[in-house]
């Protein structure tokens, strides 16, 4: 890794200021959204052709102490973490340390027989890295019986063994799409086994630092474990943000990040000409090619035929979304609360009007 490789992303974001010049059409839209859904604090960052063109912070990171959101504010990004894990897996593939078609469990699998009781069921030994990324393993859905929200005192390793022993697959691997947080937890352990580092260490080394990102990290579980610059999370409708094992969610939902750091990541995996991506064109094609089981999901990204990619994330007290549009924009949106389904629909649509309007006065 060279100094110039890190310097470039820093230069692209060099003009970043907490009090960026306002674009009233965006600010009024965001503020109306926050009022409607009682959002205490929010951060957005927008890039165009690899350059940061808008970064704006709204409301409070901590309402009790009246601490405003700023460019360094870190939010839980929940399932947006899956994009990061997918990128890390593809870095290992590029290094020829892994193949997307490697099996995961069993004598010939990446993780061998480390977890659970043997002998494994035949279908378990068929699961591949690609299928974990695509949510096509054949089980472990997050609909009602998500292992990642069970047994909070267990480590990730203990939970994997428990799940293999107590939640058998229900479909043949590769045939059916079923969104699985647990599958990405397994991918985190794959990264650790292959790289020889902790999951967090490998991601920071291979993915984040080459993008000039130093603030992102795995979050803590409780209010007392809140990291420096991390916002406070506010549950609605009785939700409790601080009762979950967030650190165990590392590879599927454990990262905390600022909006601008997510923007830095996006411009280095977006497939646009500049700045240089940290993944090869072949890896980006693989990452954004939908599975047969679900034409709307690829490897860690939701996709559509218009060459837009995105991923949302949600936990009690937090919501996040990152979007890469086909016409050169990427953006990140972070909130320190969540509420009903209309909230997520409106968050998804919040900035499309601005990025589709050629008259929007972006800062160059």
TrEMBL record:
Domain Beta-lactamase-related per the UniProt entry, residue ranges: 26-347
InterPro entries documented for this protein: AmpC-like, Beta-lactam-related, Beta-lactam/transpept-like
Endpoints of the signal sequence: 1-20
Keywords carried by this UniProt record: Signal
Protein name per UniProt: Beta-lactamase family protein
């Amino acid at each position: 890794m060279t100094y110039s490789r890190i310097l470039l992303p820093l230069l692209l974001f060099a003009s970043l200021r907490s009090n960026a010049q306002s674009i009233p059409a965006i600010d009024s839209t965001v503020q109306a959204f926050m009022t409607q859904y009682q959002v205490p604090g929010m951060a957005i960052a927008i890039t165009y052709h690899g350059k940061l063109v808008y970064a704006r912070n709204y409301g409070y990171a901590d309402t009790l102490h009246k601490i405003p959101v700023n460019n360094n504010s870190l939010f839980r990004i929940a399932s947006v973490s899956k994009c990061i894990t997918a990128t890390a897996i593809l870095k290992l593939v590029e290094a020829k340390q892994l193949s997307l078609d490697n099996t995961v469990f069993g004598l010939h699998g990446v993780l061998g027989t480390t977890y659970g009781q043997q002998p494994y069921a035949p279908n378990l030994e068929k699961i591949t890295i690609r299928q974990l990324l695509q949510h096509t393993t054949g089980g472990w859905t997050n609909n009602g019986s998500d292992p990642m929200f069970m047994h909070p005192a267990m480590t990730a390793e203990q939970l994997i063994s428990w799940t293999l022993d107590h939640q058998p697959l229900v479909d043949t691997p590769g045939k059916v799409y079923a969104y699985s947080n647990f599958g990405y937890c397994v991918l985190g352990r794959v990264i650790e086994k292959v790289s020889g580092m902790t999951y967090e260490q490998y991601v920071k080394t291979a993915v984040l630092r080459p993008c000039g990102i130093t603030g992102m990290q795995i979050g803590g579980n409780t209010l007392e474990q809140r990291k420096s610059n991390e916002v406070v999370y506010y549950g609605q409708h009785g939700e409790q943000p601080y009762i979950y094992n967030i650190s165990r969610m590392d590879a599927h939902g454990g990262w905390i990040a600022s909006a601008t750091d997510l923007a830095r990541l996006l411009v280095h995996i977006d497939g646009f000409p500049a700045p240089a991506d940290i993944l090869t064109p072949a890896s980006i094609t693989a990452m954004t090619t939908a599975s047969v089981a679900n034409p709307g999901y690829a490897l860690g990204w939701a996709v559509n035929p218009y060459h837009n990619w995105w991923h949302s994330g949600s936990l009690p007290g937090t919501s996040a979304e990152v979007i890469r549009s086909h016409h050169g924009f990427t953006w990140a949106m972070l909130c320190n609360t969540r509420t009903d389904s209309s909230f997520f629909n409106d968050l998804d649509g919040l900035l499309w009007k601005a990025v589709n309007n050629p008259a929007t006065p972006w800062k160059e």
